[in-house]
Amino acid sequence: MQLTQKEKELLKDLKGQEKLCVEKYSQHAAAANDEQLSQLLNYLGGVEQRHLDIITKIDSGEIPQPAAGEAAPKNDFKQTYSVSETQEKKNDCYICSDLLATEKHASALYDTCIFEFKNEQLRTVLNSIQREEQEHGKKIYDYMSANNMYS
To answer: Is the pLDDT of residue 8 over 80?
Structure first.
């Protein structure tokens, strides 16, 4: 498969974004105070690694299958933090806010790429990844909401 110069540049941007996501999820999972948040971030980091692998395949000329949308853990978050502000809650809230902003940026980047790629199969693959990025944001929001972090 032949990619245009613009598509190659966009893939470079996507690779950088996905590498950043993998690194952030790994670091934030290790820094999280709440074990259920740490588990969520480890799971999402694994999905981001899969996204990076897909983008790498596209960059090497392959047309991979769309993101499968693995069976994700349910969003049945137990409330860890009350309304009161503790340092642990503030730290976990910062982690969630940072990752939520990262997911918003990633989703917007995929949105641009979907319109710029000429190959229909690649647009479908990129669209499937974008949907997963949006689902990640929803999971982070649900955690924040359950823990009185989102107003």
So the answer is: yes
Whether the full predicted model's pTM is greater than 0.85, yes or no, is yes
Q: Is 61 helix (H, G, I), strand (E, B) or coil?
A: coil
pLDDT of 66 reads 82
Give residue 31's pLDDT: 98
**Is residue 68 in some structural domain?**
no
- Does some domain include residue 46? yes
Closest alpha carbon to 141 in 89, 80, 99: 99
CA atoms within 13 A on the CB side of 97: 10
Number of domains forming the structure of the chain: 1
Mean pLDDT of the region 56-75: 80
Burial-class residue 131 by CB neighbours within 10 Å (0-12, 13-18, 19+): middle
**Both structure tokens of 103:** 């997911």
